[in-house]
Specification:
Low-confidence stretches: 35-40
Organism: Anaeramoeba flamelloides
Structural class: alpha/beta
Order of helices and strands: EHEEEHEHHEHEH
GO molecular function, one term: GTP binding
Mean pLDDT: 89
Main location: membrane
Helix content: 25-40%
Bound molecules: guanosine-5'-diphosphate, magnesium ion
Largest sheet: 7 strands, mixed
Keywords: GTP-binding, Lipoprotein, Membrane, Nucleotide-binding, Prenylation
Distance between the termini: 36 Å
Radius of gyration: 16 Å
Strand order of the largest sheet: 2-3-4-1-5-6-7
Number of strands: 7
Protein name: Ras-related protein rab11
Strand content: 25-35%
Length: 178
Amino acid sequence: MTSDQDEFDLLFKIVLLGDSGVGKSNLLSQFCRNEFNFESKSTIGVEFAARTLKIKDKTIKAQIWDTAGQERYRAITSAYYRGAVGALVVYDTTNYDSFGNINNWLTELKENSNENIVVMLVGNKIDLVNLRSVSITKGKEFADEYQLNFIETSAKDSTNVELAFTTILNKIYDRIIT
Ligand code: GDP
Ligand code: MG
């Protein structure tokens, strides 16, 4: 077997955070589906998938970590955060509580991660237009206040999913390389 697909210049670990049910696992599977270099691993309590892609002049292996349901019990271990250079903090635009909990996720992230971590706020499920309960303005205001990158997505119809990941990867690249 050729090992060509395992060659990369840099590995970026990105963690997914947010309440149970907001769509973290589906964002991950959308981003990694149809991908040349897809891989997925299951360990005790933690799952991740990786995709290798070109960011600027470098081949980046994006290793995306997904909780395996521990977020339900606020039982995410420090190993989950270890070495992460990016975080997608996700809420469900049809569930105001999940937006209200973003603060808690940011606090937990701050306690467990490197201060240089690139954070992006993600409002998911925008395909459910009639059920929306968090406006894009609210999301943007929150992101501005906390100086986070911001995007709205639909993991269902894949709106902005690629853009969410490539944006955070580019920001991480800029922070690391320059
Ligand atoms: P997680 O608990 O954060 O990993 O959330 P999941 O990815 O398991 O998704 C929870 C539920 O929401 C599942 O029934 C998904 O099918 C659904 N879901 C996830 N993302 C979207 C989305 O963008 N739009 C819609 N309509 N449903 C979604
Ligand atoms: Mg999940």
